[in-house]
Amino acid sequence: MMVWVNGVETPAWKGETVASVLLRVPDAGRTSPVSGNPRLPYCQMGVCFECLAIVDGIASTQGCLVPLRPGMRIESQRGPRRIFR
Amino acid sequence: MNYDVAIVGAGPAGMSAAIRLSVLGASVVVIDEQPSPGGQIWRGIERNGDSPIFPVLGADYQKGQALTVAFRASKAEYLPSTQVWQIEDDWALFLTTDGKARRISARAVLLANGAQERPVPFAGWTLPGVMTVGAAQILLKSGGMLPEGRVWIAGAGPLPLLYATQLLNLGGRISGYLDTSISPRLATLARLPRAWRDVAGLVKGIGWLRDLRRNGTMVRGFTDLRAEGDKKLEHVTWEAAGRRHRVEADILLVHEGVVPRIHETLALDCAHDWNDEQGYLAPKLDRWGETSRERLFVAGDAGGIGGWTAAIVSGEIAALGIAGRLGVASDIDLSRRQARLDQRRARALALRPFLDALYPPPRSKIADDVTVCRCEEVTAGAIRAAARRSPADPSAVKAATRCGMGPCQGRQCGYSVQALLAEVHNMPVGDVRFFHIRPPLKPVTLGEIASLENAEDPS
Q1: Which of A85, B320, B358, B441 has its CA 20 to 30 A from that of A33?
Q2: Could you report the per-residue pLDDT of B405-455, keeping only the tens digit for each?
């Protein structure tokens, strides 16, 4: 199956989660809203929240709890949320 | 929807409770965050049956198939990929599935939400390239993903040994193993006679250690583990025999045991006990698994770490307890004896006192420069400074530093804050309380709340 990671079409396999894609696609992880340092998924079981990503337009989605679906759009969550764009 | 029983978690405890309660005629709903049943221990069990990794995952994993099949065949309603973000008295549960929220009600609730790995902060643990052993094993179970490059493992307990063995059997490589366990003391060995009732379990552990020594560097008796690198892990360093050692590393996997998930029982103001030997809080339970709140039960590792075999039994015991409370079964004591539940539980827990003594949680002082709160990036030094200016209360530290206010809501920093407060105020850790856990239990969007129908009980 194919998913979109930051606009790039990326192959993925059944059983994979959004968090697994964040780990293997270069520079796909989030950055901390405090220091801006890069982070990658840490626990894979829903307790660390390091895998937060924008999934099909919904921000702060826990990537490790979301299985991939064909055509899914995953965007990196970078820094703090902006209220005004 | 109204149910007799709402079960949170579809691991060994939740599934076995659901099966028994369904047989007894109760209407049961099982809510689980994961897309398929099995919990963390049997993650991906339904999909992995014909996978080449299935034989390598071992007998304990394979045993999950039978229970999962029985669970699917039961009358229990199953809600996968669903988060419980709020539980209210008597009992209302607020859930979100696929971005849509709803409210259900139940006469009794069973929390079977398991454990999480104990967070142990060290320098550099937020760097990409550092993750937990449990996380690596989940990646293996849910897609056959193996770590590549120079892989180091640091920690103690049965899980790193099991994972290392699985990795080696699949052709993976481990550059080295930093063993943080202490050498067994006399007190530990004194626990052995009871443990020897589970000879198979013990022999398994020894076998894992032998495999590991044959493959890669084994490091013991070190201090001050650090992960270093610019934007990602590049080196692992440690102090041993008076000098600093430094190796190149791409992946560092860490593990220091598991602790119960307590956010739900804390939020519901259940009474908890401090387990000083293992350094965790667990809800106080009666002999049926009922908490200090009537018709709120806990089973499995969420009630204290016991492993999956004990979790199955405690799920069955809680099912009987709930059935008794709700009046759907009579003579639950007789059922308990007939199913030999207490004997089965004693056997399942035989090795636990030995393991608990062999693998105590790390108690070394956290250096001031180490990030303790991953979300808000608060260091141990900042927490100590706040602790010195306040009473021994995590709320004061939280207000002063934002520690525990990020998305994980203290799941990663809670115990460390407790330990730092105890250190500064020179008191036992168990006398410092945990953060106040407030709703919601998981992040929820305003859109989800707006999508909620029947927020108030219509009946």
Answers
A1: B441
A2: 999 999 999 999 999 999 999 999 999 999 999 989 998 888 888 888 755
Testing the interface with A: which of B97, B408, B416, B446 to mutate, by most A Cβ within 10 A? B408
Are B411 and A15 inside 8 Å of each other by CB?
Answer: no
Q: Where are the domains of chain A?
A: 2-76
Same domain, B184 and B265: no
Mean pLDDT, chain B, rounded, equals: 92
Nearby residues of A64 by Cβ (< 8 Å), 6 or more positions away: A17, A18, A19, A41, A43, A44, A45, A46, A51, B138
- Are residues B197 and B88 located together in one domain of the fold? no
pLDDT confidence of residue B358? 84
Residues B229 and B275 in one domain: no
Please tell me which residue of chain A has the smallest CA distance to B447: A58
B133-157: pLDDT as tens digits = 999 999 999 878 899 999 999 999 8
Would an 8 Å CB–CB cutoff place A52 in contact with chain B? yes
B97, β-bridge pairs: B82, B100
> How far is residue A1's CA from residue A71's CA, in Å, rounded to a whole number?
8
| Residue B274 falls inside a structural domain | yes
Contact A15 B143 (CB under 8 A): yes
Rounded to the nearest 5°, which phi and psi values hold at B279? 65, 50
Nearest Cα residue in chain B from A22 = B128
Q: Does the beta-carbon distance from A13 to B40 stay under 8 Å?
A: no
On chain B, the residues whose CB falls within 8 A of the CB of A20 are 139, 142-143, 145
Residue numbers in B near A15 (CB within 8 A): 44, 47, 142-143
Q: How many CB atoms lie within 10 A of CB B21?
A: 31
Pairing assessment for the beta strands B100-111 and B115-117 based on DSSP bridges: unpaired
CATH of A2-76, one of 3.30.1370.10, 3.30.230.10, 3.40.50.300, 3.10.20.30: 3.10.20.30
* B75 and B55 share one domain: yes
Number of domains composing chain B: 3
Q: Do A15 and B142 touch (CB under 8 A)?
A: yes
Q: Which run of H or of E encompasses B310?
A: helix B308-326
CATH number at residue B426: 1.10.10
Q: Quote the percentage of chain B above a pLDDT of 90.
A: 76
Range of the domain at B381: 371-431
Residue B339: pLDDT band (50, 70, 90) is very high
**Under a CB-based contact definition with an 8 Å cutoff, are residues B41 and B13 in contact?**
no
Which residues in chain B are contacts of A43 at CB distance < 8 A? 116-117, 131-132, 134-135
Report yes or no: A39 at the B interface, CB cutoff 8 Å.
yes
Supply the pLDDT for residue B459: 47
Regarding whether B125 and B251 lie in a shared domain, the answer is yes
Let me know whether B238 and B144 are in one domain: yes
DSSP letter at B246 equals: E
